[in-house]
Amino acid sequence: MAALLCENCSSRYHHPPLSRPLEISCMLLLVMLGKVCLDFFMLQVKHKKVKVSFMGYFCVSLALLDFILLLNIAVILYLEDFALWGVRFTKYHICLFTQIISLTYGTLHYPVYLVAGLDYYMTIAQTSQLPRRGRRLFYIFVVVFIWISGFFCILTVPAIYEELEIRNHFSPYQCPLYVSVQSYSVSVAMLVLMGMALVVCWKEVITMLLSVRVASFAGQPVLMFSYVSNNSSTCFKRQLLTRLLICFLGTWAPFVLLQFIILFLGAWIPAYMEMNVPWLYFINSFLIAVAYWCRCHDVELTEETWSTDPFVSWKFCFMPFNNENTEPGEKPGTVIVIC
């Protein structure tokens, strides 16, 4: 497909008066450079001692694919016109490769989030797990299968091929890129769910935030929240929802605000930029919170349970709720300490 499109379009880029392809290629190079730096920065600053998960391996694979795309753009931009394995590569292929990546990224939001959600739902409360090496191999297999399926669908569907050809024919110097409707719908659904949760327990959220105190524990600043224990199942679920919201928004509030601004302004972001490691970890924390909410009665209070999320500490949400394991000093009216 690449060779065929190259024959039809690459000759346009050899005319000296036309400088737009070079400008577009440089812009894509700078955008991908910034995205790759952000991806690897997030992978570096996250907590290292966390349980293996599907989303963790998918984030690593996404960072690697972004890095490969960046290398391809840089090599083609530097060599300008060369042949490899019988295929001629020009600056046109910078746009083509970015379009293919955008289409692939844009179609993987639903399957990735579905698999990650099922993974957390089934493993969030497990105490006996499969061997660590077996889980790693399983997650690697699933990640590779998803990527191969995504690229296979994009490269073998004739309608997508024709759409790429039409776009590049009518806008040869603009490099039109795919915008994912899946990501937009996920953002809307998340904001709606968080808004409904805030409406349900807004009084508890305000009360808990007003009771916050800053203290020092083991030489580190901590936050202390007062709480009142209640054995009612309804109150238990509402208190848990309140704490899940506080923990999630305490870490990802800027991201939530950014999503609201993007949706309010109606901005459309190309799919190759929209799927990034920070966004995936944001979704990851949301899915973990949903899994905790759905299986709250099955969660066991072990240190391994809290090492699920590389950015959010969910220990605060559950420690006072397990009435059977509550120590004598942990009675109604005491405080919860978040490290």
TrEMBL record:
GO terms for cellular component: plasma membrane; receptor complex. It is found in: Membrane. Residues 34-292 form the G-protein coupled receptors family 1 profile domain. Gene3D superfamilies: Rhodopsin 7-helix transmembrane proteins. It comes from the Eukaryota. The chain crosses the membrane at residues 22-42, 54-79, 91-116, 137-161, 181-202, 240-265, 277-293. Keywords: Membrane, Transmembrane, Transmembrane helix. PANTHER family: G-PROTEIN COUPLED RECEPTOR 160-RELATED (PTHR15573:SF0). This is G protein-coupled receptor 160. It comes from Pavo cristatus (Indian peafowl).
